[in-house]
Design brief:
Blueprint lengths: L7 E7 L23 H13 L4 E5 L13 H6 L12 H6 L5 E7 L5 H14 L4 E6 L4 H6 L8 H21 L6 E4 L4 E3 L7 E4 L4 E4 L12 E4 L4 H10 L2 E4 L4 H17 L8 E10 L3 H14 L2 H12 L21 H6 L11 H7 L8 E4 L1 H15 L3 E5 L5 H16 L12 H6 L18
Parallel strand pairs: 1-2, 1-13, 2-3, 3-4, 4-9, 9-10, 10-11, 11-12, 11-13
Antiparallel strand pairs: 5-6, 7-8
């Protein structure tokens, strides 16, 4: 990776309160408590477009964080990603007030039929003019599984086997059910769609059976831009086959560099060009006009932070009830279903580092497990450049402390400084989200989606 490539920016958010910085809803300038008001999101989208952000990456979770203390009380009390609304329903409104901003939407395939999910993303791809992506997740909370009538999570690798088949079904629907010219819109002849240019999809596999015509005509991208976030062995293999963008998190540059290299190797093993994978790492940037102002702002954020809220989140991510640990007790790795990467981050990802419960509560107070950069424009830009060069990532998933203040400050201070250094674009490229990142609207061989594209 060239040290002088343009750095990509995604804003990282969630249709909830606080997202990765529990307690900040008490800050009088924070608007994340108004997550259930559309104006919060349309205003945010416009801020991000002014800052030339490549996209808004919208996380989601199905279920409550009920591991800490053996129940949901801590999560509910501290708004640790609950209450939470559906992220997909935000996108049309945000697209309406922007022209270029992309939207990476998290959708859990375990609990959604491929037929309905394919229609939802085709709809958004039409309404956004091809600016939508799908963050593919399989879920990690037992509470979400129980809410769907199961005793607990399906085994980790089994979920990825299901996901592999799920993708094949979606590709058949998106790429192969309609010819590009099927919707003829022939007013004189009285034909909107030529039936000869539409085919039913038939699939019968180990996990899914389907026979039906995709309900949507071909959208600008057909298949949405594909995001993924798993870095386990099964997750890397899945990313190698399918992902165009991967989100990674970790406590240090060394951890991120290793995971980035492993992901690019997984892509190459599938016969794809490693350059066809963009890697985004988690980072929180607190930037202001001066170093002193940035430090004051960070100190203010820490005063509003909720340590118990952070531990409730981390307990959910790791499957460990951290309420039963002493504050200075070391956290050790235990193989647990669905929690591998999060557990590795605070146990064996850095062999020479010991994490206690207190360390986790303090480190994750702002922006979860990712690093926090605090500085003026020059200092923040120095730190961002160094992080990108040390990790080999293409861009950053930028978490917020206070919404939209964190992103307003990045747009006002960090972006102009990176532009001055030639590290950030000065204008959007035209076209779809995929075209902006890769110069083409649709997936190309050898990506498996291309094998399902309509041919005469």
């Amino acid at each position: 990776m060239s040290a002088k490539h343009e750095i990509l920016f995604n804003a990282f958010a969630m249709n909830t309160v606080g997202h990765l910085s529990p307690g900040q809803w008490r800050n009088p300038r924070d608007r994340s408590g108004a997550y259930n008001r559309l104006r919060t999101w349309t205003d945010l989208a416009q801020v991000l477009e002014r800052g030339l952000f490549d996209g808004l990456f919208i996380a989601d979770v199905i279920g409550l964080y009920d591991v800490y203390g053996g129940g949901p009380d801590a999560a509910l009390r501290h708004a640790a990603q609950v209450p939470i609304n559906d992220p997909m329903l935000l996108v049309s409104a945000m697209a309406h007030v922007t022209e270029h901003l992309g939207f990476g939407v998290t959708a859990n395939l375990t609990w959604t039929s491929p037929y309905l999910l394919a229609r939802a993303f085709s709809t958004l791809d039409h309404l956004t003019g091809g600016r939508v992506g799908w963050n593919i997740v399989t879920g990690y909370l037992d509470s979400g599984a129980r809410a769907h009538g199961h005793a607990g999570l399906i085994a980790h690798d089994d979920r990825y086997a299901m996901a592999e088949e799920y993708m094949q079904v979606c590709y058949k629907l998106w790429e192969g059910s309609w010819a590009d010219d099927a919707a003829v819109r022939d007013a004189a002849g009285g034909t909107f769609t030529d039936p000869a240019r539409v085919r039913p999809v038939r699939h019968e596999g180990a996990h899914y059976r389907l026979e039906g015509i995709h309900l949507c005509e071909p959208s600008p991208q057909r298949t949405p831009l594909l995001y993924q976030a798993g870095t386990s062995t099964a997750g890397r293999a899945f990313a190698g086959a399918h992902a165009e963008c991967v989100f990674v998190s970790g406590p240090s540059a060394a951890v991120i560099r290793r995971r980035t290299a492993e992901l690019r190797a997984a892509v190459a093993e599938q016969g794809r060009d490693p350059a066809d994978l963009k890697v985004f790492s988690l980072l929180t940037v607190v930037v202001a006009a001066t170093q002193a102002e940035a430090e004051d702002r960070h100190a203010e954020y820490l005063r509003h932070a909720s340590p118990e809220g952070s531990l409730a989140l981390m307990a959910g991510w790791t499957g460990l009830d951290l309420s039963g640990y002493a504050l200075d007790q070391e956290i050790r790795y235990i193989e647990r279903e669905g929690y591998r990467t999060a557990l590795e981050n605070i146990t064996r990802a850095e062999p020479d580092r010991v994490w206690t419960v207190r360390d986790v509560a303090e480190h994750c107070a702002i922006g979860a497990i990712g690093p926090v950069v605090v500085g003026d424009a020059a200092g923040a830009a120095d730190a961002v450049e160094a992080w990108v060069e040390e990790t080999g990532v293409d861009g950053l998933n930028l978490a917020y402390a206070v919404l939209p203040e964190t992103f307003e400050a990045i747009a006002a201070h960090l972006v102009p400084e990176l532009q001055r250094r030639g590290r950030y674009k000065r204008a959007y490229r035209p076209g779809t989200l995929r075209a902006k990142l890769y110069g083409r609207d649709r997936l190309a061989p050898p990506h498996p989606a291309a094998a399902h594209r309509w041919t005469d």
